[in-house]
Amino acid sequence: MKTEVAPNLAITITVEKDGFYEVNGTKIEPSVSMHMLAGASKLRRQLRDTSELIVCPGVYDGLSARIAMELGFKALYMTGAGTTASRLGMADLGLAQLHDMRTNAEMIANLDPYGPPLIADMDTGYGGPLMVSKSVQQYIQAGVAGFHIEDQIQNKRCGHLAGKKVVDIEEYLTRIRAAKLTKDRLHSDIVLIARTDALQQHGYDECIRRLKAARELGADVGLLEGFTSKEQAQQAVDDLAPWPLLLNMVENGAGPVITTQEAQAMGFRIMIFSFASLAPAYLGIRAALQRLKTDGVVGTPDGLGPKKLFEICGLMDSVTIDTEAGGSGFTNGV
Hints:
By secondary structure, the chain is of the alpha/beta class.
């Protein structure tokens, strides 16, 4: 495309397929405000354009997600364990399926379309290549920014329980390949995270072999689940550098406690805290209900009434929408 801007001055702008363009031969990346980007593009830019650790608290419902957003986290993680516990009241034993996970992720991802991007657990992809493809497509349509898919058998369990079994590497790579082909076919920026749970069954070297193979197929990020030591975690970063790795930090789980500062120094790029909301929720709810049982009251602190909780969940945004549209629902306040 050639544009005349003055009698003796011409500027030639060439637009390329990848979104970059050239002005008089100088290649320029389009400048787009971060808050206007879809979650997937936002997460991909955070990985590409910064060196900071992307810290994602694990959230499992709308309230936990709203609290994390209120505190200003730059990304969120929808935990499969938390989704299974909150929606089904069951242990993380592969009982939550695509419908449970996708609908929960869609709700969380769309609480604030301009808010922090959401990474979501996709377990094993819920079946063969066709189901993996369907799962990826539904996550993309739901507004999920990134997902991890693993190599456990379909009858899977939480990554921090004993007795895990994984499929052979060929089947695992079929899942990764199906996911990559689907996101490419749909021209999506969604971040594909290849996870392996092979450490218990096959050892460290097999984990690295699987992650390298997934990287060759185009996975964007790697996740080795269940490190047994900090030294092993550092070794994985070194062995797979410069490929970005995600660290799943589960306190009182199978591995050592690693702080965000330590993970940053090790070279991890993303850190998820799967039980960051679920464990404190259990403690807080149990303590309140125990007091109700023994003392006859819940003991909610002063100032934490219904209005305050509703404000965390977007009450004032709802009031603004109604009022600006000419509604009278909140004429007398709330």
